[in-house]
Write a structure and sequence with these properties.
Blueprint: E1 4-6, E2 9-11, H1 29-54, H2 58-86, H3 91-117, H4 122-145, H5 150-169, H6 177-196, H7 205-236, H8 241-262, H9 274-305, H10 313-335, H11 346-356, H12 363-390
Antiparallel strand pairs: 1-2
């Protein structure tokens, strides 16, 4: 890799591909900054879901949330995989990432009004388009510096550019927003599949799994923040702490267990082919979206417990347990391995039990107990498995 140093930092003259076997490949400060800015958009989406569910507009709120979260996740994922292959960290690269960050902030600014109006607006669509077009410039730089993958880079640039024109055009026909969204989202997802057929980009498995793990941490932290904000508002309004203790304890157990289940094992060894990488990478849409929705559900549960929401206790429990069950099933599908056959059924069984808890009227604390039991059971089985393998 051609490079030079200067007093102002690292400078690379060409955006050549990085080795997928590079040692000690870790997330950069710029990537971490990028993730933290995306928290703003995720928080806005979760807040909109919280208020929609609490006011008995769950289906509309969920649909809007899933659509907005797609834009957030897809822009993040596209940057992450590109950076794994072509992060040259020069001035142009950094400035283009700053443009993507600006697009994320613009999109976040329009999320609340979009969810309320159930229609796209200039801020959300414009922010998404800005993020994506900045990536087009990055791909064009890669096409100029990496002759072996020039066709791949140009395919990415062409596909993204055409689709961003179509996304902007949707503002002119908002009455067709839902079918238009489904079509354009499917086409957006297909661009990498088409582009990578030419010559696969050299992403780094350890780097990719670390990046996904870091966003999982951020999303789980946002869930805690959402629940904490709802608890603070309830206490400020005069709610009794005794009403909130079951939700506080249950919510903490839920988030702790979600963290434990995700980081149960290193997962870079799962990314052994492009097909598996696509399945794993795309499947994380459900992991991230459900993790953020848990925070919205916990906030709904607080509102229901303090009688400040229209939704009842069963509905509030469902608002927590559905995303928790989705999270468990998603990780079971993505992270299940043959050497873990002893615990293969635990995730689906726990998900079914979790979905039954709202009908008891104590969905949050019982869900927390079930997830804590899942973690304890897996630890017990793993310990015995390791002991038996040693002997």
């Amino acid at each position: 890799m051609s490079s030079s140093k200067s007093s102002s930092g690292r400078r690379l003259s060409r955006m050549v591909a990085r080795s997928p076997h590079e040692a000690h490949r870790a997330a950069t400060p710029l990537e971490l900054f990028f993730d933290l800015v995306f928290v703003v958009a995720i928080a806005q989406a979760a807040s909109g879901l919280h208020h929609a569910v609490a006011e008995l507009h769950a289906l509309d709120g969920l649909l809007g949330y899933l659509m907005v979260f797609f834009a957030i996740w897809w822009a993040w994922m596209a940057f992450t995989w590109f950076a794994s292959a072509y992060d040259c960290d020069d001035v142009a690269y950094r400035l283009l990432v700053f443009v993507q960050i600006a697009g994320a902030l613009l999109m976040a600014a329009g999320i609340t009004s979009m969810l309320e109006a159930r229609m796209p607006n200039i801020a959300t669509v414009g922010g998404y388009v800005i993020m994506r077009l900045a990536l087009v410039v990055q791909w064009l730089r890669a096409s100029a510096s990496d002759p072996g993958r020039r066709s791949t880079a140009r395919r990415y640039a062409l596909g993204i550019t055409i689709l961003q024109t179509a996304w902007a055009g949707m503002l002119l026909v908002p009455q067709y927003w839902l079918p238009g969204f489904l079509i354009l989202a499917a086409l957006d997802l297909s661009v990498p599949m088409w582009a990578e057929r030419s010559s696969p980009t050299p992403w780094h498995p350890h780097h990719i799994t670390e990046r996904y793990g870091l966003l999982t941490l951020i999303v789980l932290g946002e869930s805690i923040l959402s629940a904490n904000a709802a608890i603070q508002s309830a206490l400020a309004a005069g709610a009794a702490l005794s009403e909130l203790i079951p939700i506080i304890v249950g919510g903490l157990l839920i988030v702790y267990a979600m963290w434990w289940v995700y980081f149960d094992r290193p997962v870079h060894d799962l990314l052994t082919s492009m097909r598996k990488a696509f399945t794993w990478g795309y499947g994380h849409y459900f992991v991230f979206a459900s993790a953020a929705a848990v925070g919205a559900g916990l906030a709904v549960a607080v509102d229901a417990a303090t009688h400040t929401a229209k939704i009842g206790p069963v509905g509030a429990g469902v608002a927590v347990t559905v995303p928790v069950a989705t999270y468990l099933l998603s990780l079971w599908f993505l992270h299940d391995r043959p050497e873990y056959r002893q615990t293969r059924a635990y995730g689906p069984v726990a998900a079914v039990l979790v979905l039954l808890t709202p009908f008891t009227g104590h969905g949050v604390p019982l869900t927390g107990a079930i997830l804590a039991g899942l973690v304890a059971l897996k630890l017990f089985v793993y310990r015995n498995h390791v002991r038996d393998s040693v002997h």
